Amino acid sequence: MLNSLFKKLYTNQDSNNNDKPKQVVNGVILLYIAFILSMITDWLDGITVMPFVVVFLIISLVITATAEGKKWARIIMVVLIVFNGLSFLFNIAQVLSHAPKGKFTNLVMVLYTIEITTEIWALVLLFSKAANVWYNQPRPEVVE
How many domains does the chain have? Predict the structure, then answer.
C-alpha cells in the first residue's frame, strides 16, 4: 500500500488522474512532512493514545484524498491549517505573556514553528495555478 502511494507521488502519475503537476506532488509531500511533525509535537505535548490514533487516521485520509485530486479535501486542509495556525498564535501569545506553559517546551515550539511553515508552503503549492488547473479537471467517477 505505501509502495503504491509513494509510486503515485514520485512518478507524477496516477491511474485515475492525468499527470499531477509538480506543485501538487511537492505540496502533498510537504503535507506529510508537516503531519509527521504534528504527530511528534502532539506526542511530546502529552496526547493520549486514542486521540492520537483518531487524529492520525483522519488527517491521513484527508491528505490522501488531497493527493488524489479531491477538491473538498484541499479545502478541509485549508481549514485545518488555519485552525492550527490560530492555535500556534495563541501559544506564542501565552509564551510571550509569561503564562504557565505546562508541557509546551522549547523543542515543541521549534517543531511547531517548522510544522506551520511547512503547512503554509504546502498550501501555496496546492493553490498554485498549475495545481488549480489539475484540481478543476473532470475526474471519472468510480462505480463499484
Answer: 1
Residue (of 116, 24, 120, 10) closest to 69 by Cα position: 24
Q: How confident is the model at residue 137 (pLDDT cuts 50, 70, 90)?
A: confident
List the Cα angle 7/13/18 in 5-degree steps: 155
In a domain, 7, yes or no: no
C-alpha cell at 11: 512518478
Helix residue ranges, H only, the chain: 2-11, 22-44, 49-67, 71-96, 106-126, 129-135
Expressed as residue numbers, the domain containing 92 is: 21-135
Whether residue 83 is contained in a domain is answered as: yes
Share of the chain above pLDDT 70, in %: 81
Residue 142 lies in a domain: no
Neighbour count for residue 34 (Cβ, 10 Å): 24
pLDDT score recorded for residue 144:
60
Q: Determine the Cα–Cα distance for residues 25 and 69; give it in Å rounded to an integer.
A: 11
